[in-house]
Design goal:
Length: 202
């Protein structure tokens, strides 16, 4: 199993940090990048989506996970209520909420919104009903122990699994085939080529 220690540099968590996503991270079970990619593939397997490149994440969450299986409640919140948060997964896994503009964009297959949906599914799969603890102020924590980087890796792996990336695929192929952003496509190609130094999936 490939560890992620070498490819994911330590992050100093700070209330002053510009990367808001990191200040919202919680400490969780350490997981390798490989393990998270495997979890995302298991999820695709469970919903019978190992053959299709473009994953309809909003339909999967809304129709399969929420309406059919009743695994989780889907909530749409106003911009006033959500503020800068685009999505939120309840720690007990009871609901996943999206800001209404993100929900609409996800249904229109906007790559960033699709990533947000996949990211929240990642929190649901990896972090709901698990023990999470706050990161002590100023602590240096490796990203493989933090919820936000883990959810980002899950999202990238769910949207664009390495198993479905062809050897001849270009960045634009990945953008078009998997419905991901340019940056995400670049990172996934780098990941496939084992060159990625990124600390997140996209
Ligand atoms: Zn998150």
């Amino acid at each position: 199993m490939k560890g992620i220690e070498n490819s994911m540099p330590a992050i100093r968590v700070s209330n002053q940090g510009k990367r808001k996503v990191m200040s919202e991270s919680f400490l969780t079970t350490a997981r390798s990048w490989y393990e998270i990619e495997h979890k995302a593939w298991e999820f695709r397997t469970a919903i019978g989506a190992t053959g299709e490149k473009f994953l309809p994440v909003m339909d999967i969450l809304e129709i399969i996970m929420s309406q059919s299986l009743m695994l989780v409640e889907l909530r749409i919140e106003t911009v006033q209520d959500m503020g800068t948060a685009e999505g939120f997964t309840a720690p007990d896994g009871s609901f996943i909420a999206f800001r209404e503009d993100v929900y609409k964009k996800a249904h229109r297959n906007d790559p960033r919104a699709r990533f947000t949906v996949a990211h929240e599914i990642g929190h649901f799969v990896l972090h709901s009903n698990t023990v999470l603890s706050r990161v002590p102020f100023g602590a240096v924590v490796p990203p493989y122990k933090l919820t936000e980087p883990q959810a980002n890796v899950f999202a990238a792996s769910l949207l664009a699994p390495l198993q479905l990336i062809e050897s001849y695929d270009t960045v634009s192929d990945l953008e078009n085939n998997f419905g991901i952003s340019h940056t995400c496509a670049v990172n996934r190609l780098n990941r496939r080529n084992n060159l990625s130094k990124k600390d997140s999936g996209c």
